[in-house]
Amino acid sequence: MDLKLWLCLMLLGLSASVMSTDEDDLYGGDGDDDGDVDVEDDIEDTDEKPAVQSTPPPLPRVTYKAPVLTGDAHFAESFDSGTLEGWILSKAKKEGADEDIAKYDGKWEVEEMKDSKLPGDKGLVLKSRAKHHAISAKLKNPFVFDKHPLIVQYEVSFQSGIECGGAYVKLLSKTSDSSLDNFHDKTPYTIMFGPDKCGEDYKLHFIFRHKNPKTGEFEEKHAKRPDADLKSYFTDKKVHLYTLVLKPDNSYEILVDQTVVNSGNLLNDMTPPVNPPQEIEDPDDKKPDDWDERPKISDPDAVKPEDWDEDAPAKIPDENAEKPEGWLDDEPEYIADPDAEKPIDWDEDMDGEWEAPQIPNPKCQSAPGCGEWKRPTIDNPNYKGKWKAPMIDNPNYQGIWKPRKIQNPHFFEDQHPFRMIPFFAVGLELWSMTSDILFDNFIICSDRSVAEKWAEDGWGLKRAADGASEPGVVGQMMAAAEERPWLWVVYALTVALPLFLVILFCCTGKKSGEDYKKTDAPQPDVKEEEEEEGEEEENEKGTEEVEADKEDIVTKSGEKQDSDAEDSGSRSQEEDETNTATTDKKTEELRKRVLESTEQNKD
Known about the structure:
extended; alpha+beta; 9-stranded antiparallel beta sheet; about 25% strand; 8-stranded antiparallel beta sheet
């Protein structure tokens, strides 16, 4: 019973905890610890219209504060000035495209998010669909790949979803031609990083251009695809934080919302590999004409058996079959429909001679069959098919031919691919079939703590605002039930069934005290005490019987002595001692019997 009570208390405590959690979620709760996030309560003036009692308390409001750099950075942009100051729109044309769409004339605006929870928080928004967009900004000072890591971080929100398009950034290489007015798809870049989607292919690019130390040519190296499912980042219309961390030891990490979704090493996890193979197949080597790659061949010594009949048919008529009784040989299976009439507009010159349509012969419906009877066919037991010689191992088999290996004339070994071409600007060169893609809070630096603090003051603030405005679990369940009324039945069963089981489990047990009152039979918890009391009573009774027998023996002995004294007048002292010894012996035997009886009762 104690176990049932404890389980009931635990269930009640758990229910209270869940209800408390739901209320915290619904009315804001403590939320995430976001550092300098300020929360102000919307308290209305007492002179205004009083609130209805059934209305829940107002949700906390997160006040926006622009992020502030806490350390050195090569580039930082929050767009809170409300302008495109420092950003350059491209005037180039895309090569190889039709004149109508070749221009980079897509529109950019600095504005707040749709349904913004943070008034005053602005970002860069791609406004046009089915257009080429290109915009860029210079870094405070170029980034040189030496002993310090590279951290690239920014926010993206696909406010209207995304059909086909990208939201990646390009870190533009420092070259002799550093004019951003002519920024286009062929402009050299060092790194390309960010989300991209078309159809059902969801990507998170990390591409860097590696310079061949022998030829000086550049080749794109693509990071392996992440194992994580990226779909929700493109479809939930929320702001997501994308971070690339590249270290001098050639390792890299890719994070979304501060969670690692991909990691690896520039030397081992890029396609194609940074370093080419030391040996390659000889392009001039050719397979000899007599090279035999056949592992099995037909046995040249095999001979077709003389009784092998290749012309025997696979099926033969069944000679044991008999025509069913009642078969109508003279009746056709189909006859002309006697009720059919030639159409009035039938022209025999144009349509030919008219014939009534065919229908199943009604006489055949009650018969086993009509028309000419033919024997059914069965498998021919003598059928063997075309003879083929059995296969044997090829004694001349030489294996699958491969060209010989030679030293790769273009081989090189670059153990420090991190040392890439310095870059001086960040650019967005995009095509999208969906508009309203928001970018915000760019930062390029080498100190991870600086980037994390920048993210906390930017993306973290947005997340806190979303959390404060979103309903709790109960609110979400109510909203779902409004869209799908059948969920009310599920909710009712989910609540009623556990409640019924708790009541059944906790309230239908019998108390042990009641059982003791309803019966006089010994209960398990008092049985041992009663047995002990019974044994004590038997021992006392046995002792009393011993004492009584002893007194009786002594009395009889005394009476016998008095009678002998009267008859004989005297007895010797020796006879008295003998009588006393006899009495003591009988007493001792009686005591032993009582003790043995007591021991048997105990057993």
